[in-house]
Amino acid sequence: MTSVYFVIVSSNDNLIYETNCINMEFDKPDERMNLQQVTAYASMDVIMEKSLSSNQMYLGIVESSNGWLVYAFLTPSNHRFILLNTQLNEESIRSLFIEIFDGFLKVTLNPFYQFNEPITNKEFDIRVKNCLKRFVLK
């Protein structure tokens, strides 16, 4: 079973975007979602530690927990992209984060978007899900 969980956490540690995919079905309710959320939030300390010793936006695998590989990407505005995946796929994940970051910039630079508020833009949601299908769930 292929399972992926992706979140964007704002610079003030609020969840502003979240999606999960189980066997190519997005945003399907799943009893493991609470564990995924806890795993993602627990990795934030490790992400901050790793970001202090790196000048890269892509931090790679920051930890492995509860059977998940936790990948991280840190934006210049200190937003964290966190991806939980069960398969090792470094290059695809790097490309995924760069593609999502491009869409993230378009959303956050929109004058109607309030910084650090949840992202509800449908085009962004579609873009993230298409990227997950293309880079992770192939």
TrEMBL record:
One of its GO terms (cellular component) is perinuclear region of cytoplasm. Keywords: ER-Golgi transport, Transport. Pfam families: Sedlin_N. It is found in: Cytoplasm, Perinuclear region. InterPro entries: Longin-like_dom_sf, Sedlin. It comes from the Eukaryota. One of its GO terms (biological process) is endoplasmic reticulum to Golgi vesicle-mediated transport. Transmembrane segments: none annotated. Belongs to the TRAPP small subunits family. Sedlin subfamily. This is Trafficking protein particle complex subunit 2. The lineage of its organism: Eukaryota, Metazoa, Spiralia, Lophotrochozoa, Mesozoa.
